Amino acid sequence: MSKAVSKVREARLELYRSKGTIHAKAVAGRFNTARWIMVWLTQIIFYGGCWLRWDTGEGVRQAILFDIVHEKLYLFGLVLWPQDALLLAFMLILAATALFFVTALAGRLFCGFACPQTVYTSIFVWIEARVEGDHLARLKLDRSPMSARKLATKAVKHGIWALVAIWTAITFVGYFTPIRELLPSVAALQTGPWESFWLIFYASFTYVQAGLAREAVCQHMCPYSRFQGVMIDGATASVGYEHRRGEPRGALRHAGSTGDCIDCGICVQVCPTGIDIRDGLQYQCINCGLCVNGCNQVMDKLGAPRGLIRLASENELAGAPKRAGEGKGRRGPGPRVLVYAGLLLLFSVLSVWTLSQRSTLRVNVLRDRGLLSRETAEGRIENDYTLKLINMEEAVRTFRVEVVGLPDLKIEGGSEFTVGPGSIHTVPLVVSSPAEAAPAGARPIEFHTAAVHDAGTASREKSRFILP
Ligand code: SF4
Ligand code: SF4
After folding, report:
1. Domain residues of the chain, as ranges?
2. Quick one: which of 371, 441, 443 has its CA closest to 404?
3. CATH, domain range 361-467
4. How many angstroms separate the alpha carbon of residue 106 from the centre of ligand 1?
5. Whose CA is nearest to atom 8 of ligand 1?
6. Which ligand is nearest the CA of 302, by number?
7. CB–CB of 226/220 below 8 Å?
């Protein structure tokens, strides 16, 4: 084998996990508490959200539902239609900008505390620790030869993982198919093809990503870790090690010739991605802060100030005094933070404005091009139109239609139409005008539609009236 081929193989192996499963040491502290608060918060919302009900006045439905079949997104009292694509686009841009803002402000804070990969890995590792024991017991079990006890222990762990993964998949699909309808069909093994596909896919995905791949997803699959570098600058707060204070590291700190780092390795042992933060900022770091908790405990035992590893900006760490808390304080926010804050404000205002201007009535007017116009026995000219009334409210509504733009222009027959909740009603309309109302040609007219119960729910649509 040539040297080049062997180098490529080594590089390929290095791209994936080369250390075996990482069994991080459990550590208590503020960051760990914050992580678990986020786990509880996000999972209460995720597992509980699909069970919430909403009374529309006409009936009760699931409060949060992405109804793909009927092209509607239900968010409590708000029902978004495909016609609300602009509002949805603003909301998505807002979410992306918020992520950029948080990243510019505090690095991969989202990764360490709110990313589903991190949250589910925490849950799966917690289950593993309950079944197999602490990190040392897990390491020992992994290295021991296969035995009945090892097989039974692993089977229990994988069984619980599978149950959590299946329930997670049911919950996920329950946001697209009402969960109260989905559960009986799952129990009876009668789910539809798409539901079956997503149940199997999402359960497998959760099991593999959170149980088996874990930190490898953050290190090798997540694109966010690769492009986060363009969102941060010297003022971005990230978990970092204060070289000036810690180096030269060594166990003989008391001798006075070394820094505060006693090279105990606790920061590496507690790291879920298995990296050494003392080597500097690395893309594998998810900013979880567990190494901060670990190192602070060591500093407490040594009677040294906390913060040898801490959440701090590159600027702060570079100019930090020998002891944390002395001298220079933190610098102000960097230009990226200000730009993202500006964009966040802009898209927040645009989203709120779009929502406030949103009407629950949409009207489409189509002039019947097959028939230009006709003259009646009374000497009036008639044109045909098709009106599409879209009632976006979850209640029956009656709408009154008027037409303006020419003298004595009127709708023949009734001009009030009742539309069911969340429905589209198509009505053929005949509009007539005196023949002498205007010179021959296509004259601009407008259809004014308003809800009978609320004049503010209104629409104006332009069209043309043909006079021969
Ligand atoms: S935990 Fe602190 S003292 Fe121990 S090796 Fe890491 S940085 Fe050094
Ligand atoms: S280096 Fe520290 S902050 Fe980064 S992933 Fe490891 S434990 Fe978390």
Report:
1. 13-49+81-228, 361-467
2. 443
3. 2.60.40.10
4. 22
5. 261
6. 1
7. no
